[in-house]
Amino acid sequence: MPDAPARDVLAVDGLVRRFGKLTAVDGVSFHVAPGETYGLLGPNGAGKTTTISMIAGLIRADAGTITVAGEPVGPQHVAVRRRIGLVPQDLAIYPELTARENLRFFGRLQGLGGHDLARRVADVLQLVGLDSRADGATKEFSGGMKRRLNIGIGLLHRPELLILDEPTVGVDPQSRNAILESVEALSVEGMAVLYTTHYMEEAERLCDRIAIVDSGRIQAEGTRDDLIRMLGGVDQVRLAGDGDLEAAAAALRELPAVERAEAGADHAVVLAVRDAPSAVASLVTGATEAGLALHDVEITRPNLEAVFLHLTGKALRD
Ligand SMILES: Nc1ncnc2c1ncn2[C@@H]1O[C@H](COP(=O)(O)OP(=O)(O)OP(=O)(O)O)[C@@H](O)[C@H]1O
């Protein structure tokens, strides 16, 4: 008999959240299994923070359901929050206290105490790579060290689901690496991790599955390789310029190496091209002959950035 599939730690179905006329989250569904790291990859404003705020029970959903380990989540369901660790973008630590004192303080707030708390504090300090700085005042910590401490606070109560909202934004490379290593270690221990980022390298390195999010919707979901297969082995080329973009796209579609060409956002034609480095000269000639005054040519070989461009016609980064 095959093993029954492990129950999802997190199940999100048909989630919607509006702010006035803006639908910030527009029918988002995904599931995360124990030990799985699931990434929400999308640019600023895609709806990632709003999604995780609903999952953490901080704001209500206008529609849809969320369960964590089978229990419903929402602002009125308080007990289920013990199963969730949320590490928000904003830091919440006391600068006058040491790292250890901060952890003890937040641990007590979570109802921990005694030897159990002391042991968990020691474990967490080691996991986030701050054990050698445990008794230093946090006001002297770098931004990255403070962020690692914030992650430690989210982990103290040993949640089944850890939610990290863009944890490496603005941190030094050493802390960034420590954060990525901590997340890898947690997943080995069986924790489910929901990781939001707009850095495709982090999504590629950490996440077992990735949802590409834009305009409040999941545009595609899968492993990195699943997503890259969607490109069909072609490169993406972006030709930015002034002129009749539709006419240029139509002319470029006639070239043998070009599989697709669309007039995209931001004064650019976005193309899917076989072996773009060899074809680029003919693309430039074709676009120029079609009357486009080119000011930029960008080739993106298959990676998640290219998948994002392919799905949305936009670059992942600002
Ligand atoms: N409280 C709010 N009131 C009004 N609009 C909001 C509110 N919170 C978020 N939004 C809007 O909802 C959209 C999604 O924002 P959200 O913060 O979820 O995106 P994000 O992908 O997490 O980006 P970021 O990394 O910048 O937080 C944005 O257009 C944002 O301006």
TrEMBL record:
Gene3D superfamilies: P-loop containing nucleotide triphosphate hydrolases. SMART domains: AAA (SM00382). It holds the Pfam family ABC_tran. Keywords: ATP-binding, Nucleotide-binding. PROSITE patterns: ABC_TRANSPORTER_1 (PS00211), ABC_TRANSPORTER_2 (PS50893). The keyword Manganese does not apply. SUPFAM superfamilies: P-loop containing nucleoside triphosphate hydrolases. Residues 10-240 form the ABC transporter domain. Coiled coil: none annotated. PANTHER family: LINEARMYCIN RESISTANCE ATP-BINDING PROTEIN LNRL (PTHR43582). This is ABC transporter ATP-binding protein. It comes from Georgenia deserti.
